[in-house]
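Example record

The entry below shows one chain as it appears in the dataset: sequence first, then structure tokens.
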Amino acid sequence: MAAGGAKPPYTRAMADPEIRKIIHVDMDAFYASVEQRDDPALRGRPVAVGGRQRGVVMAASYEARTFGVRSAMPSATAKRLCAELVFLKPRFDVYKEVSRQIREIFLDYTPLVEPLSLDEAYLDVTTNLKGMPLASEIAREIRARILERTGLTASAGISYNKFLAKLASDHRKPNGQTVIPPEKGPAFVESLPVARFHGVGPATEARMKRLGIHTGADLKAQSLEFLKQSFGKSGAYYHAIARGHDERRVVPDRPRKSVGSETTFMQDLGRPAEIEQGVVAVLDDVWSYCARTGMVGRTVTVKIKYADFQIVTRSRTLDQPVASREALERTSLDLVRTIFPLEKRVRLLGVSLSNLDRPGGQPAAPQMTLEL
């Protein structure tokens, strides 16, 4: 017992070395907030980052969200929901620089930082560089430093595993934080709809609902065998998280596995020559990364989105790595030509290169910024 009979904080964590302290930091409406920060005229206005004419919303300010505007929503739909919506082109160079500044702050507290995207990351602070006993105080200090350095707000979730920390970070957005201690984890999960669970996308949510699984409590009521039968390899994961369990570790600096680029065209493409020109244009970004980093890859994938939003992909894994831009272009064109003759017009094309490695067998360089 501590002085005065009070229990010290994180008693269970100190007694059980397997109880970890995980923080999930999530920037609030990151891209849109950066734009509002840099242009005072945008503050308080509904803002969307993305393509106005042909693309999708990449980020929406909280003012825009009150109208129902969300990320991944077609831009035309967003404009119908909010006539005053201001569309802005993304400035990834700026976002990456801000992300780098945020990462520097994280690394002052722990080397165990796992980026998920430009605007969010997991931190394992079970043992931290500051010697601070409370993960909630670390999160509060990190958020204050982010605000001071970047002028942007962040939300945080603190718990004993990654799954619950991510759930917690959404609980008091924007500019808030939530702690889910071990004794409250299972009950917290039971009360939530399965759509809130990381790893449960729209298709899985729909399948769960057809099976009568609407909440964490419903999920917990299912046997491991039933979930494996219904959801394959993911069944064991769903069985665990329904009970507040998640053994995944925070893994810093994951090697980058692929690089890709895509573009949505202002007008749908209907002629083979246009399609080929579009592929050649989009692969320049991919090869630029390879040339800059010295990376090579063996699997080329071309993505095609038709005017009716149907998506198809074509991939080829080569015996030897793609060692030149000419080789990447040749393989990409061979792949896209498999959709000729065109049955319908094309609105988006993408090219990606995966199975990345370095010549000589050296592993891929770790991601040093919070990549998309």
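Notes for this example: The CA atoms of residues 301 and 315 lie 4 Å apart. Confidence is low (pLDDT under 50) at residues 1-17, 361-372.
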